[in-house]
Amino acid sequence: MPNFVRPVALAVAVATTLALTGCGAEVTSQGGQQDAAGDHYPVTVENCGEKKTYDKAPQRVVTNDVGITEIMFALGLEDHMAGYVMPDDKGDLTSVPWKGGYRKTKWLSKEGINKELVLDARADLVFAGWNYGFNEGDGFTPADLEKVGIGSYLLSESCRNGQGKARGVMAPLDALYTDLRNLGRMFDVEDRADSLIATFRKQVAEAQAKALKGADRPRVFLYDDGQDKPLTSGAYAGPHDIITKAGGDHVMKDLKDSWTTVGWETVVERDPEVIVINDYGDTGADRKRKFLKSYPPLANVSAVKNDRIVVLDYADLVESPRNPAAIASLATDLRNFRY
């Protein structure tokens, strides 16, 4: 997984959080006031096509992975968490805007999430997603948790769309805003969620205003990993909106899925002018770059030939509060390549 957050993206993210809090990057809990008066609950939200009703705010949430965990932290909900599950290769978490959340919240495991772990944590809700923790093959699904009395909330980016196990039912940024809005209602912090969404929309709009347009928009390919076949982003994963709103033409925009594999021949045929590397895992950005530069079928691809390769952090690209900052960062990179 990733090493360090890119300085530009982090600076924008810090500025965003400072604007929200007015005095610093840490957000204190403000929920429960309406609840105490008895006029907020029950609330019903729609999550991946299913309506879910909450009679009170969940108190012991377990989250899986960095983006999901930081959504909770961005809303100031660490006091409602029993802990998070995340590999230890997520970069420097001591300098992110949500470092206070990481300090206060228990790191339950650096391995995969499972039913035994969330039972031991006395979780009342698991916030994860299909292939973001939930997996039928591991016997860890929302239905499995329901049998032992634990609720679940699915990351909207991961919603299955009825085409086999393909994922994605809305534009990636809409998925982020949907989750912020739903969680705002679930935890009685709607004002905070609305403020975040408004700030993120403004940040994205400002980046778009400066982004390349029309014929200047370069063709962009997202390279996640893989040598035999590349794992990439379709129209429903974060990189699609990050690329397009940053002023790029996403070459895999016709794939009605989130994270999926394609053939190298498709990449060669679409001839991306810029490649964005997703930096994470044992095969980090440097090794991925070396592979792309040395793989013979890619030798004449414009991005490789002209060495126009950008690195973004994993947490910038999966659904997370870092997405708007990633758009601004990539927009700058694309302009620099053009001019």
Shape: globular
Q: How far from one another are the termini?
A: 32 Å
Number of helices: 14
What structural class do helix, strand and pairing data support? alpha/beta
Return residue spans where pLDDT drops below 50 for at least 5 consecutive residues: 1-37
Percent of residues in helices comes to 25-40%
Strand coverage percent: 15-25%
Q: How are helices and strands ordered from N to C?
A: HHEEEHEHEHEHEHHEEHEEHEHHEHH
The pLDDT mean sits at 90
Radius of gyration: 20 Å
| Major pleated sheet | 5 strands, parallel
In short:
With 339 residues, the chain is α/β, with parallel strands linked by helices.
Commentary on this structure:
By secondary structure, the chain is α/β, with parallel strands linked by helices. It has helices spanning 7-21, 33-37, 66-74, 99-104, 115-120, 142-147, 172-186, 190-210, 238-245, 264-270, 285-294, 302-305, 314-317, 323-338, and strands at residues 43-47, 50-54, 61-64, 81-85, 107-109, 125-128, 151-154, 219-223, 231-233, 249-250, 259-261, 274-279, 309-313. The strands form four sheets. A five-stranded parallel β-sheet has the order 5-4-3-6-7. It has a four-stranded parallel β-sheet with strand order 10-8-12-13, sandwiched between helices. Strands 1-2 form a two-stranded antiparallel sheet. The longest helix is centred in the middle third of the chain and has 21 residues, at 190-210.
